[in-house]
Amino acid sequence: MDSTQLQTVLPTSRNMPSDLGGRTVDAWDLAKDPSQCQDEEWPGAWCARAGAVGLSVFINLVDQEIGIHLVSFPDERSAAQAFKTRDKTDDMDRYPGPTGERAYTFDLVAPEDHLLWTGRGMTFQQGTVIGRIEYSWKPGTHVPTERLLAVTRMVIQRINEKERGLNPTASAR
């Protein structure tokens, strides 16, 4: 998937729960800007083979933030090989994705400016794309129990739709 295709896969605020506003939605062609891959914190070995990276960030500016990070590879085999080498130290458990793929949950480490925040994340492979969804919130915030899973399933479905030649229409609303 090239950067133009990856851009259409990334959800916008129209696809996300209404209590989160869109802040950033962008994709980069790594042939033109290879440093962007490591700027998005993907492993260097992955960046050497990847074709594009994408990012969507949604935040309500008060107590919640969701980051959707995607990296695409030239073919599904390359993506599967990279996915097998991911850091597994933070994996908490698994759930079967919409088409039977596995996704893994992990705990997030809060950045310095959000030390009191907590979070969870999921990482997955769908076709030629590896994704990482990071959801963080302030303690005491009402966090819908299925939000991380719903957003992950929506992104996997959008990738699947695009890889089948369809317009991505999946939504978490």
Identify the notable features of this structure and list them briefly.
173 residues, alpha+beta, seven-stranded antiparallel β-sheet, 5 helices, globular
Task: Provide an overview of this structure.
- There is one protein chain.
- By secondary structure, the chain is of the alpha+beta class.
- Helices cover 24% and strands 32% of the residues.
- It is built from five helices and seven strands, in the order αβααββαββββα.
- A seven-stranded antiparallel β-sheet has the order 1-2-3-7-6-5-4, with helices on both faces.
- The longest helix is centred in the last third of the chain and has 17 residues, at 147-163.
- It starts with a helix and ends in a 10-residue tail after the last helix.
- The model has no long low-confidence stretch (mean pLDDT 85).
Strand content bin:
25-35%
Biggest sheet: strands, sense, closure?
7 strands, antiparallel
Shape: globular
Number of strands: 7
Judged by helices, strands and strand pairing, the structural class is: alpha+beta
Distance between the termini: 25 Å
The order of strands across the largest sheet is 1-2-3-7-6-5-4
The ordered H/E elements are HEHHEEHEEEEH
Count the DSSP helices.
5
